[in-house]
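Components:
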Amino acid sequence: MTEKIDASQRLLQREVPEDLLRERTVHVANRQNVTGRGTKSIVIFRIGREWLGLATDVFQEISEERKVHTLPHRRGGILGGLVNVRGELLLCFSLDILLDLEPSPGTSTGNLKSHLLVCNRNGNRAAFSVSEVFGIHRYDPEDLRAVPATLANVAAGAHTVGMLSWKGRNVACLDDELVFYALNKDLA
Amino acid sequence: MSKMDLASLSGLSMLELFRMEVETQAVSMTAALLALEREVDPAPRLRELMRVAHSLKGAARMVGRNGAVRISHAMEDCLVAVQSGKRPLTNIMIDTVLQAVDFLGSTARVSDEALGNWEHEHKSVTEALLAALSSPAERLPAPVVADGDRASSSEEIPLAANPGPAGGGSERREYSKVLKASDAADRVLRVTADNLDRMMALAGEALVASRWLTSFAADTLRLKWLQHDLGHTLEGLLSLLPAASSSDVIQSQLFSAQGRLAACQQELAQRFARIDQFDRQFVSFSGRLYHEVLDCRMRPFADGTQGFPRMVRDVASSLGKEVTLEITGGSTPVDRDILERLKAPLDHLLRNAIDHGIEGPAGRRLAGKTKESSLRLEACHSAGMLLITVADDGCGIDTEVIRKAVVHKKLTGVETSQKMTEPELLEFLFLPGFTLKDSVSEISGRGVGLDVVRTMVREVGGHVRISTRSNHDAQPGQGTRFQLELPLTLSVIPTLLVEIGGEPYAFPLTRIDRVLSLPVDRIESVEGRQHFSLDQEQIGLVAADQVLDVIGAAAPKAEVSLIILGEKAARYGLVVDRFLGAGQLVVRHLDPRLGKVKNISSAALLPDGSPVLIIDVDDLNRSITNLTSIDRPSRVGAGPGAPQRKKRVLVVDDSLTVRELERKLLEGAGYVVDATVDGADGWNAVRTGHYDLVVADVDMPRLDGIELLTLIRSDIRLKSLPVMIVSYKDRQEDRARGLDAGADYYLTKASFHDETLLRIVVDLIGSAVS
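Structure:
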């Protein structure tokens, strides 16, 4: 027994070989591998016929679609109304109107919604109704492609930072700062 | 009840408050004292310390802690001496003040009962500390303790920086004794309102969830019936089997199926019973949790009346009257919001009673009353309302005097005034600016007091009544009584739930005059405006969906659902889609980012968890008045017209004055105006909104006007957006720089006139609506 303890003591306390130490030091000191792929994370979701992405860190929870109560004198605006999330009344916004999304064919009252995204960006809480949520996706900012020139011409189309290929689809990555800026401005 | 009794009634929580204050202030004082040692300019710190010492003195006086009053007073003196340079700012001085702070802390922890003993035991410490605070001599007070002490030196709080072991031990004993005393009292915790709101939200959600389980259990009943049906089918099958065929295999299979079904039924019944039991428990628990959280909002009435005995004494003595204030019902729970808002109205009523109601000593003698007059403040719960009574035994209010004053102030004619009843006349007292006093004194007489009272009471949905027995037929007056009838809480209000535009809205029941269903054929029309007759009165109809600007339900109906709102002069019949019933709602505040939402006061959740908006009835009345005076109300059931698009202007300026001036000017001309505080903000705004014009300053932080202009001109979507520069810089080269960067107009603030700005804007983008 004591032999075994001695052996393990020796094993653990042995000197680290000089070359191994140097190699590891270089490896740890090397920052090149740290930057690179998969450093940004978004949640991918769909509204009607558009696939969109929003930075993961603004998400608080994703729940099923709930009843939204519209606010008087706010008809047709970005602010959709109030929604009850775990007993708290949150403001629910329409990305459809903010992003000028087209309603899918066959629906008269806009896109069908099944999920509610609950977001919190620097204390500004907001909920969005969406059609479908696909989960978290990591990507390299270098893979972002420019938005089509036609979008660049649309008056309110500046909310997209770039396009991303994902499972054969083009996902529009939203600029969360600009999106929340637009929401708060709409409230003021 | 005397003043002493009062103290014992409310003293407990007052001491708690004092303790809390000392604790908080001790922390800030200690921090400030410690910072003082390092500060280059100690003056601001000293001022802060003096302010704290002063407020501690006031607080100690309120709870009758004379030792603490003396210590904090000496502390104040000491700080003043340091500030004026009479005493050097040394470590020893700081130590002394720190010890004084500790002393205040320990005296605050002593209960009222133990105070006598404690003060006796700590007499020498107190004296030593006082001496150290007031003497400019630079020595620690510790020796003073030893010198000046008699027998109880081991019982002292050690004042020296390094207490001896014996002293320390006894101090600990002392503290543990003190702690035990304070533990026995009702402990007070400070919880932020946010925290409480979130707790209430979760408790409410638990309540909603518990209701879901009930309906789930009810649905499960269906399964029971299905099994029951299955049993019948099996029995039918068995009876259909020809007895003679004696097909044993089939028969035995059927019997075993029946057996299995019975087992299933039994199993289900057991599960069902368990769900039922759990459901009942859960409902009961979540209900209790919810009410407990709601109760957190209640405070004893005594908490809101602490300042009154003192105020009454001071006011009475300044008027040369002898008044005893008697407060009863101090333990009555009152919603903390209501309690907070009650303070000013009660203050007014008490001052009024002392000044107007109660006679001077001579007057009382003449009326055969006791020299000392009594003033009663009473709180109790009655029939689901909170009743607060302020009553005096003074001369009462002579309604004839009011009658004369009403006529004199031309509020009504002589004849009408003769017909008015006593309650009607007393009602005039609530009018703003109406006073019976000839002179305005410091105490009352400006005629605003009762207006304040009524406004507050109305705001929370209550009533106020006056009754009086004045000098009649040589009988001396028996006094005046004000009774406030208030809701028990502002967090839960009874409401009428209605549907407007297919969505639920709630009207506070206290603000509704009447509710009725009106057959369509009773609706008449005058000059195109719809109305109907109710009790000889013509009541105009307004569609709720039009007032609220929501999309209404267009389906024509044989009857319309009406809510009658408004004051006597201007009553309206508000047409809603349908009535959903009455319900108690727990009020939730709207997201502060929304600001004030027109016609809406707050929100709530319905039992099924869906949101409902609570109507701000005062605001709604105003909206209806505006709507009917400016617009033409739409015919009941008719759809609203399409709104016109107004031109939008973005103002970018870091000066609030300029920004608001421009905003006012442009909004006055009908434009929709957004304002941002600097170029960077402006750049964000201009990219996200559809603007027809940007009006920008040049000198701004982060991103200046020229840079903003350059960004706009280089943006493919925005490059043709008209931009106007408004700047102080009026040199030729500044102008050229602006115009070169692509400004459509360069206006100098020197030539900034209302008309110039507007004329240029119209030149650039045309008038607001086109």
